[in-house]
Automatic annotation (TrEMBL):
This is FANCE protein. It comes from Formicarius rufipectus. Pfam families: FA_FANCE. InterPro entries: FANCE (IPR039685), Fanconi_anaemia_gr_E_prot_C (IPR021025). GO terms for biological process: interstrand cross-link repair. It comes from the Eukaryota. Residues 6-192 form the Fanconi Anaemia group E protein C-terminal domain. GO terms for cellular component: Fanconi anaemia nuclear complex.
Length: 193
């Protein structure tokens, strides 16, 4: 284990991941590997965790054409519970920015936002979404973040409201957009004046 820990703290991490074929290992093994990562002391550095998030999950998530297996969800939940910042910055950001995102990827991000991510990471995901042009596919992700009913920092709430107002003409016939605006007004009625 100490040898492995030394390797994980070393810049050769990508090579090690490739050697171990972590991006294609069977999902039950992935769950066990993520469980083992949680026991490491000291914790992985941000950079190491970001590399692992990419190596372990990115290809799997981007290639989803059906709902993820319970093993993959367990591994994602396990990894994101401890390394949520690099997880969001690497994996969630890549999924959100991928051109022609599939419905399964969007559903997966919604599920992570609703059930796995800490409140500060839900805010990070929301700010990542608001940095790009809203699309029909991104609306459910925003809805999931709003639905967590965590108190948004005023600047993020202002950005959300501004974005929704600016983009309203593009979504004049969108039911998801109407539901999102209603949710924002309901959850943050005391802050939206």
């Amino acid at each position: 284990q100490s040898l492995m820990c030394h390797a994980l703290c070393h810049p050769q991490l990508e090579g090690l991941c490739s050697f171990l074929q972590l991006s294609v290992c069977p999902e039950p093994l992935l769950v066990r590997f993520c469980g083992w990562l949680l026991t490491l002391t000291p914790d992985l550095s941000y950079t190491s965790a970001a590399i692992l998030a990419e190596q372990l999950f990115l290809r799997r998530v981007l290639s989803l054409t059906q709902p993820p297996s319970r093993h993959l969800m367990a591994a994602l939940a396990s990894f994101s519970s401890k390394y949520s910042q690099p997880f969001c910055r690497v994996l969630v950001a890549a999924v959100l920015q991928e051109p022609g995102k599939g419905a399964e990827q969007t559903k997966l991000v919604c599920e992570l936002v609703e059930e796995c991510l800490e409140p500060h990471c839900v805010q990070l995901v929301l700010s990542q979404v608001l940095e790009m042009p809203l699309s029909e596919q991104l609306l459910p992700v925003v809805q999931a973040a709003v639905g967590r009913q965590d108190v948004l920092p005023p600047e993020l709430l202002d950005l959300l409201v501004l974005t929704l107002c600016q983009q309203a003409p593009a979504f004049s016939t969108s039911l998801d957009y109407a539901k999102l605006v209603t949710a924002v007004l309901t959850v943050y009625q005391s802050q939206v004046g």
